[in-house]
Specification:
globular; 18% strand; 37% helix; three-stranded antiparallel β-sheet; 338 residues; alpha/beta; Luciferase-like_dom; TIM Barrel
Length: 338
């Protein structure tokens, strides 16, 4: 059994071929797709966050709206770039969205990916020491995790506007349990180990910022194994979750074949990101029986408890709901995921 959700990058473009022409289209359709996914029996609705791009950027209003429109499905991000974040303000927003949803928020965060602009976090007011932006993202993360623990740290005003509870004050609203629902988007084996040491769940996408020459799914499976070993060594008193993302396109209609038939021969790719080799995972497209056989060989999917299906959101709500339903109905049972 696996948790199966979708991951949307929330693209929009003013093109006659796109169902999402504006930011408003993308936001409202994201809510509708989450509602549809819950009705289909999916387990999660996750959204990528990109700044300075025609993609989703402000996750918390969207997550809160989805939380108010749904009752069961997990809602989350994959991922928020912590280089841009004020961790205390983020803790307030996350706490509010989690309370609105009844404790269903699964917050994926990370150092972030290559940006649309040069050092975009500087425009948000953040300047890393010694130009080490990865270290800055980790510092912001450590502050966020500390605040989410819920312990008081701020000295109260002796003459406040409203009465204070005794002791030091914490950020409000606080949502119990959210601290254990923070995920780190790790792009390498070493960052997965760091996430384990910090007590965060592991979120691994369709690329890794390293390449050892082995197939992507095997390198990702090694990353998961090292994460779990580091978790055990850290001595945390709860069990983490692990998610992987995949593009899985069952071809069950002529429309599916027109869109994704050419992807049936997809293979891993090697590229160059942040000054080093990176390995990109393949897409899966084909008849359901073919997909079942191929996915059964994916070692990282087998090792993870959560699978996030990347969806082409510009094709609209109805088509993406069809893709999610096809995976749940025609593929997942054959692999023992349902």
């Amino acid at each position: 059994m696996k948790h199966i959700g979708f991951l949307s990058f929330g693209h929009w473009t003013d093109s006659p071929h796109s169902q999402t022409r504006t930011a408003g289209d993308t936001l409202l359709q994201s809510i509708d797709l989450a509602v549809a996914a819950e009705e289909l029996g999916a387990d999660g609705a996750y959204f990528r966050v990109h700044h300075f791009a025609r993609q989703l950027a402000a996750p918390f209003p969207l997550l809160a709206a989805i939380g108010a429109r749904t009752s069961r499905i997990e809602i989350g991000t994959g991922v928020i770039d912590m280089r841009y974040e004020n961790p205390l303000y983020m803790a307030e927003d996350a706490g509010a969205a989690d309370l609105i949803s009844g404790g269903r928020l699964q917050l994926g965060i990370s150092r972030g990916s290559p940006e649309q602009v040069v050092d975009g976090y500087r425009y948000f007011g953040y300047r890393p020491e010694n130009d080490d932006h990865a270290a800055m993202a980790r510092r912001h993360t450590e502050v966020l995790l500390s605040v989410l623990d819920g312990e008081g740290f701020a000295e109260p005003n002796p003459r406040p506007m409203f009465p204070n509870p005794p002791g030091l004050l914490r950020v409000e609203p606080h949502s119990d349990g959210l601290r254990r629902r923070i995920w780190w988007g790790a792009g390498s084996r070493s960052t997965a180990e760091w996430a384990a040491e910090q007590g965060m769940n592991l979120m691994s996408s369709t690329l890794l910022t390293e390449d050892t020459g082995v197939p992507f799914h095997q390198l990702q499976a090694e990353q998961i194994e090292r994460f779990r070993k580091a978790w055990a060594e850290a001595g945390h008193d709860w069990q983490p979750r692990v998610s992987v993302s995949r593009s899985i396109m069952p071809i069950t209609t002529d429309e599916d074949r027109a869109y994704f038939g050419a992807d049936s021969n997809s293979r891993d790719q090697v590229g160059w990101i942040d000054g080093g080799n990176a390995r990109f995972g393949r897409s899966y497209a084909g008849e359901p029986d073919t997909l079942i056989a191929q996915l059964a060989e994916d070692e990282a999917i087998a090792a993870a408890d959560t699978l996030l299906l990347t969806v082409p959101n510009q094709l609209g709500v109805d088509y993406n709901a069809h893709l999610i339903e096809s995976v749940l109905r025609d593929v997942a049972p054959g692999l023992g995921w349902r």
